Queue: 2 jobs
Job 1
Amino acid sequence: MVLQTKLQHLRSKAKFKKLIKNHEKVIIIAGRMCPVCSSMYPIFERLDEIHADIEIWDWDYDLQSADVIRDLPECEDFWSLPFVIYFKNGKVAEATAGKQTANEIKKIIKRIYK
């Protein structure tokens, strides 16, 4: 299954590794088509249009290959979806879980990617 978003879709660990290796700024939103996740996808779709310098991708949380996100140490205590992982220079700069507003997300982007 592919998430019904306008974002680019991650489906493999190889693509994930290449993405964070070759791009300075990457955001991955790992979720489902649940109400909370679905309410956040439009925020990231708009941000993707605004921030050409940031690679913003989604990843179906239930895909086996998404275990690379689920198993990150920064996500081990997360209990709600979606997981949003902000990478800078190939490393996790921030990780969040659950519902967030557009303003909260914009503040994280501004702080991390100045």
Job 2
Amino acid sequence: MVAVELGQVRIIRVKAPKGPAAELRGVPMGQDVISPPRQLECVDEASTVAFIRRIQEVAGLPVGIKFCLGRSTELRRLVQEMKRQGVFPDFMTVDGAEGGAR
């Protein structure tokens, strides 16, 4: 399973980036990592949906998106673009506003 996180700044603490994850991020094992608030490939709805399609093609695994919903119009535009391109994630997770990673 692959989850593409949209619009979330994450601090990955020392225990998280190990082995392949540390290597993929290009940081030494045991070093904290600050993930950017968005994927660099995702600048608008069209590029975000294209990125989901690309990850599905490469990973060969279920691919979903996780995001914080600021405005319902943002989700509506994203779903309209998914329909236009015929590309849909396998799952969608809406993150709550109750706090961040600890």
